[in-house]
Design brief:
alpha/beta, 2 domains, 19 strands, 27% helix, 22% strand, binds zinc ion
Length: 495
């Protein structure tokens, strides 16, 4: 048996001021894709792990991952499709395809990149060969995905720490299907519901309860895979909404029943997903009143993992004027500030403005007098379990600026901020800080909850705000909760 393995992952935010280019994916094809993921805790790494152990030949197709931003520009989407088609062609005759995608990727002229890629793969492989697709928990499930994939398997964790296990699960299902032990039958149930990322952790709360129910169904053998998708909230596209996907062994009616039961349970508890936000000034005051640290301020409205540019000064402007009893650390994307720091050199002090350079609608630059502590090539390797564990991130050139007790790690390009290693790799240990600002709604909890004295979700404006009603929606199908609180019960709903 020969099985093609591929990954193409990006989450879109159609409100982001930054478009995506193909180069943002650090694309590789063929053996270079295997080299990137062999032994790594990614979906692709999980595919390889199971296929290698079973003595089945894994044929690497391509590996692409990009940080969240707005749509992939049209010309580059054409290049992406062409790259994928050639790489899959070069894989030769295969028995199936294991594909890792995000599920919320868009391009100019395409609301459903996954659907397009899957359709292309289906055309090339023919109607019979299994295509098993893994998706991020924040995928926006579409009819095209359900039509062209044989089976869909989503992450079960948020913060996401089970990419490897999800890849393993998909690869096991693929082998079972090819050996005739399973005939995957899938059902997709969409909900007219967007869920705040700040309150959809899988370990506790309302979403944790739903996830335990999904896992119990899998453990009882009721289904091959039960996946819940509280969609990435910041996409203004027509086919938008949360979803439940159930894969059974040959029984589509059972898949429909399980999906409907879970979706009904979710719909009934939709009010429990509301979040409470704190004003940044108040959060800083509260942090100062707490003994020790670090106190984590989650500025989710500027979450780099949710498509914000990472340039917000919503918290920063208060930090640089607050009387701080300890160090504060914050990450910021600002190529101009990095250039100034490089001109000045290590050990120098320079007047400059920082932040507010991409999303000029939601925040303004802040004038500071900064001491240049450190300059770097902006390369660091994620260590915490989660995104790209063990894989190097390139965020362009970077610098650490000190403004009083505020340490600003400023980079030319965006980066995930959920791993404390981002700061540690630049000489800032979050454990010894009084305040750490992360640009993430929830993903940060995996690595920060164990070390945080307290966590506050702060309320600043931005394109990944939890206040979804403040965003300029146009294309989304209405009514939908929470934009339309009076949305009627879906017709499939079982009270
Ligand atoms: Zn996600």
């Amino acid at each position: 048996m020969r099985i093609a393995v591929a990954s193409i992952l990006q989450e879109s935010n159609t409100f982001s001021p930054v478009m995506t280019r193909l180069e943002d994916f650090s694309p590789v094809t063929g053996e270079a894709a295997r080299a990137r993921h062999q032994g790594k805790l990614t979906e692709f790494g999980g595919f390889l792990n199971i296929l290698d152990a079973a003595g089945v030949e894994a044929v690497p197709v391509c590996a692409l991952w990009a940080i969240t931003a707005n749509r992939l520009v049209a010309a580059d989407f054409a290049r992406l499709e062409e790259m994928f088609a050639w790489a899959l062609h070069d894989a030769g005759e295969v028995d199936g395809l294991l594909l890792a995608m995000h599920g919320a990727q868009t391009a100019e002229g395409a609301d459903d990149v996954e659907g397009h890629i899957l359709e292309m793969a289906r055309t090339m492989l023919g109607p019979k060969k299994p295509i098993v697709l893994t998706l991020d928990l924040h995928a926006n499930l579409t009819r095209a995905m359900a039509e062209h994939a044989t089976a869909i398997v989503g992450y079960h964790t948020y913060p996401h720490v089970d990419m490897f296990e999800t890849g393993q699960k998909a690869a096991r299902l693929m082998l079972r299907a090819l050996r005739g032990e399973s005939r995957p039958a899938m059902f997709l149930r969409k909900l007219p519901l967007i869920v705040n990322a700040e309150n959809s952790q899988s370990s506790s709360g309302p979403f944790g309860r739903l996830m335990r129910a999904a896992e119990a169904l899998e453990a009882a053998g009721e289904a091959e895979a039960v996946s819940l998708f509280p969609v990435q909230p910041w996409m203004d596209i027509a086919e938008m909404g949360s979803a439940v996907v159930v894969v059974t062994n040959g029984d589509r009616k059972a898949a429909e029943r399980v999906a409907t039961d879970l979706a009904s349970d979710w719909w009934r508890t939709r009010e429990e997903f509301r979040v409470t936000l704190v004003a940044p000034e108040a959060a800083i005051r509260l942090a100062m009143a707490i003994d020790g640290g670090p106190v984590v301020l989650a500025e989710s409205s500027d979450s780099t993992g949710s498509g914000s540019p990472g340039d917000s000064t919503g918290v920063l402007k208060h930090l640089v004027t607050a009387p701080l009893a300890g160090d504060a650390a914050i990450f910021l994307v600002d190529p101009g500030a990095v250039a100034k720091a490089y001109e000045c050199g290590v050990g120098g002090t320079v007047e400059m403005s920082v932040g507010g350079c991409f999303d000029t609608l939601n925040s303004q630059p802040v004038a500071v007098r900064a001491y240049v502590r450190l300059l770097s090539d902006g390369r660091w390797t994620a260590r915490a379990r989660g995104y790209n564990t063990g894989i190097e991130t390139h965020m362009g050139r970077a610098a650490v600026l000190e403004v009083g007790r505020v340490k600003i790690l400023v980079a030319e390009r965006s980066s995930m901020t959920v791993d404390p290693e981002l700061f540690r790799s630049h000489g800032i240990d979050p454990v010894h800080c009084k305040i750490v600002v992360v640009k993430s709604p929830n993903g940060f909890r995996a690595a920060y909850e164990p070390i945080a004295r307290e966590i506050f979700l702060v309320d600043t404006p931005g394109v990944s705000t939890a206040n979804l009603g403040t965003l300029p929606w146009r294309r989304i199908a209405r009514p939908i909760v929470p934009l339309d609180p009076e949305t009627p019960d879906p017709r499939w709903y079982k009270a």
